[in-house]
């Protein structure tokens, strides 16, 4: 395999990594919401930490993060970091589209514009090969 | 300091820590001879090699700090406020990968990255 070239396989791995990351975020947000703490200062940051770590959801989130981290290590030897990270933003496209299909969420025209921009941005980033500006 | 300013600074800090971590991971991955990575066993050997590298663990430390600052920010603000600001990581990684890893910045990558950032801001704010 040619190093640095975005193949379909690498793309699929990045998407899977995205999905795991989103799941971890979701679990952690749920766990944090359960603590009931909405403002953090130096006085309660310790209490916040303890309460968070006593939540099952936060630990589930951390576990999913570890799995996605190992997957990420498998991704990055194949491709430039400055390509892998923007391509990883495909989650911003898949999640709203899934929300439309399965949750029947309404998507505003501005959000559609954003989705189109991310798709185009990934397309351009993945094409990156020619005309180096800085090197 | 108002909560809004505090949250913005925390997210920017969190993304900077995140990018430092990723630069270290990639630096470590770059030291491995990739031609030998084949099949499941090849990947296990590769992962073992990486996990024996100190850079990975330093990167992991940065990642933990990143998650901690992210959680502190997230607990005080809506996800729809936190996420658009987080897209600054793509700008950070573009330049730091050039400086520290020698990855080239070309017109395609620059345009693509800026479009991704603009797109994420529109998706997550609206």
Describe the structure.
- Chain A is mainly alpha-helical and 135 residues long.
- Chain A has one domain.
- Chain A has helices at 8-35, 45-53, 56-76, 81-87, 91-103, 109-127.
- The longest helix of chain A has 28 residues, at 8-35.
- With 126 residues, chain B is mainly α.
- The longest helix of chain B is centred in the first third of the chain and has 28 residues, at 3-30.
- Chain B is globular.
- Chain B starts with a helix and ends with a helix.
- Chains A and B meet through helix 1, helix 2, helix 3, helix 4 and helix 6 of A and helix 1, helix 2, helix 3, helix 5 and helix 6 of B.
Rg of chain B over CA atoms, rounded to whole Å, is: 17 Å
Series of secondary-structure elements of chain B, N-terminal to C-terminal: HHHHHH
- What is the overall shape of chain B? globular
Strand percentage of chain A lies at: under 5%
Mean pLDDT of chain B: 89
What structural class do you assign from the helix and strand content of chain A?
mainly alpha
Give the arrangement of secondary structure elements:
The complex is a heterodimer of chains A (135) and B (126).
Chain A: H1 8-35, H2 45-53, H3 56-76, H4 81-87, H5 91-103, H6 109-127
Helix pairs in contact in A: 1-3
Chain B: H1 3-30, H2 39-51, H3 54-74, H4 79-86, H5 88-101, H6 107-125
Q: Could you give a short description of this structure?
A:
Chain A is mostly helical and 135 residues long. Chain A has helices at 8-35, 45-53, 56-76, 81-87, 91-103, 109-127.
Question: Can you tag this structure with a few keywords?
Answer:
heterodimer, A: 135 residues, mainly alpha, 6 helices, 0% strand, globular, disordered C terminus, B: 126 residues
């Amino acid at each position: 395999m040619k190093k640095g070239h975005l193949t379909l396989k690498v793309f699929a791995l990045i998407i899977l990594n995205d999905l795991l990351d989103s799941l971890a975020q979701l679990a952690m947000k749920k766990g944090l919401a359960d603590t009931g703490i909405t403002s953090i200062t130096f006085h309660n940051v310790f209490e916040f930490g303890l309460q968070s770590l006593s939540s099952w959801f936060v630990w589930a989130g951390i576990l999913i993060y570890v799995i996605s981290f190992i997957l990420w290590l498998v991704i990055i030897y194949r491709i430039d970091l400055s390509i892998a990270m923007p391509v990883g933003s495909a989650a911003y496209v898949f999640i709203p589209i899934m929300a439309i299909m399965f949750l029947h969420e309404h998507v505003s025209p501005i959000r559609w514009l954003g989705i189109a921009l991310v798709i185009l941005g990934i397309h351009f980033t993945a094409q990156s090969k020619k005309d180096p500006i800085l090197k | 300091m108002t909560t809004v300013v505090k949250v913005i600074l925390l997210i920017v800090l969190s993304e900077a820590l995140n990018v430092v971590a990723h630069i270290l991971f990639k630096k470590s991955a770059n030291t491995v001879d990739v031609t030998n990575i084949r099949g499941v066993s090849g990947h296990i050997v590769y992962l073992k090699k990486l996990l024996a590298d100190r850079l990975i663990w330093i990167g992991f430390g940065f990642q933990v700090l990143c998650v901690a600052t992210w959680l502190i920010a997230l607990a005080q603000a809506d996800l729809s406020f936190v996420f658009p600001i987080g897209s600054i990581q793509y700008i950070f990684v573009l330049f730091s990968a050039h400086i520290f890893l020698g990855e080239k910045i070309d017109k395609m990558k620059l345009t693509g990255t800026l479009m991704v950032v603009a797109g994420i801001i529109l998706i997550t704010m609206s």
